[in-house]
Amino acid sequence: MHNDKTYPAQLTYPAEQLHGRSTSPPPLPSLKEEIAYRVRYFVNAYPLLYMPMARFRHRYSEDRIVSAETDLVIEAFGRTGTTFANFAFLAAQRRRVRTVHHTHAAAQVIAAVKMRIPTLLIVRKPEEVALSHMARHRVSARSALHAWIRFHRRVLPFRKYIVFCLFDRMIQNFTPAIQRVNERFGANFEVWQHTKENEAAIFEQIKSRNRGRFREDQDGERKRAFALPTAEREALKEQLRHDLEGESLAAIRAQANGVYLELVNEAV
Q: Which residues share a beta bridge with 165?
C-alpha cells in the first residue's frame, strides 16, 4: 500500500515553550570533548582505521557492525533521526530482520556498500545538525561543520549504492524511503505506514529507550542525549546559534550547504 500523505512532525517545540528559559551564556566548548570529537569523526570516516577497532569494541553486538548476516544498514551523521528510522523500520517487519545502526560512521556505510548490503542513509541540513552537536557534545561550530562535511563527502562516491533519505521528509512521511530501499536493492521488507498512530507508537518507544539509558541522577546528560527534542536543549541551541552564524564561518557553512545540495539531488 503506497502512502504519499504527510503528517505534522512531532520533532519540534512551539516557540512559546522556549520563552522564560535561562538567558545565562551557553557553556563554553569543552577542550577534552572537542579533541575526542575531532579524533572520533576523523577515524570513523575511514574503514581501514575504524572497522578493526569497531569490530573489537562491538564484538558482542550484532546491531553495531555490518556483517554478511546484516539485512539493512541504517546510518546517518549523529543527531539525524536514526533512532526513529530504525524503530519504525523494525516495527513493520514480520520476520527477524537484522539492522545495523547508530555508529554514525562513514566507514560503516562504505564497508556495507562494498559488502553489497542494502544501505539507507539519512541526511539532515548541516546547520541544524551542527547546533545539535554543539549542544550535545559541547564542541565548536567549526568542528561540527567539518565533521559533517567529511562524513558526507566520504559516502558521496558510493551514491549509486545507497538510498538517501532527507530528514525533513522522513519525519513527515518515512514510507517512501522504505519503498525505495526495496526497489533499489530488490528487497522485500515490509513497509512501515507513516500514520499518526504508528508515529506516536515509535515516539513512545524512543522515550522508553531513553528512560532505560540514563539514571535519574544523570538528568543533565539525559537532556543533552535524549533522542527527541527537549525544550531545554532547544533553548540551548538558540543560544549557540550566534556562534554558528558568525561571519568567520561563512565559508565553511557555504561548503557544507554545497555538499547538502548534492545529497538532496540523490535523496528520496
A: 122
